[in-house]
Write a structure and sequence with these properties.
With 166 residues, the protein is low in regular secondary structure. Helix content is 13%, strand content 8%. It has helices spanning 6-12, 32-40, 114-119; strands at 67-68, 72-73, 104-109, 149-152. It has a two-stranded antiparallel sheet. The longest helix is centred in the first third of the chain and has 9 residues, at 32-40. The protein is globular and about 40 Å long.
Length: 166
């Protein structure tokens, strides 16, 4: 599997009505909060998208790294590296592969404080009204970039010691 830049994927994504990671409304790429909401539906306060335990009933619900990172992936979830699509059960709304396995680019520009800013606009149910990402990027890891984007979902390279919530 090769990494794909946001721009390269943007050129290759199917348009409206052709599937893929584009939004059903207008063929746009999904925003970070929309991806979060679809992944965490009903589990907004939990550490993981599926609940409070990493492996409930000793079952893996996403493809992540097990073992000593980066030396040995024990593959106790059944996969060393990326897993085939739909290898794990869907979430409560029937969405597959929302966390773990591979990262997904979103439409949002990256800003280190965007989540904190967005959290102040939560409604009583803990969800933003029509959330949108920042219109400009401010990425301290890449200060000269004018187009630093947000990735969501985690990947098979995520490990419980350094990734959070997947």
């Amino acid at each position: 599997m090769a990494p794909v830049s946001w721009r390269r994927q943007e050129l290759r994504l199917p348009r409206k009505g052709h599937g893929g990671v584009r939004d059903e409304v207008g063929g746009r790429r999904k925003s970070g909060p929309r991806v979060d909401r679809a992944a965490r539906f009903g589990q907004d306060a939990a550490r993981f998208a599926w609940g409070t335990e990493l492996t409930p009933d000793s079952r893996h619900l996403a493809n992540i790294w097990q073992g000593t990172f980066p030396l040995q992936d024990d593959a106790t979830d059944g996969f060393a590296g990326a897993a085939p699509v739909r290898s794990f059960p869907p979430n409560e709304i029937g969405a597959y592969d929302m966390v773990g396995n591979v990262w997904e680019w979103t439409a949002d520009m990256f800003q280190h404080d965007a989540f904190a800013e967005r959290s102040t606009a939560l409604n009583a149910e803990g969800c933003c009204y029509n959330p949108t990402g920042p219109s400009v990027t401010a990425d301290p890891r890449n200060p000269h970039s004018r187009d630093s984007r947000v990735q969501k979902g985690g990947s098979f390279l995520c490990h419980a010691d350094y990734c959070s919530s997947y």
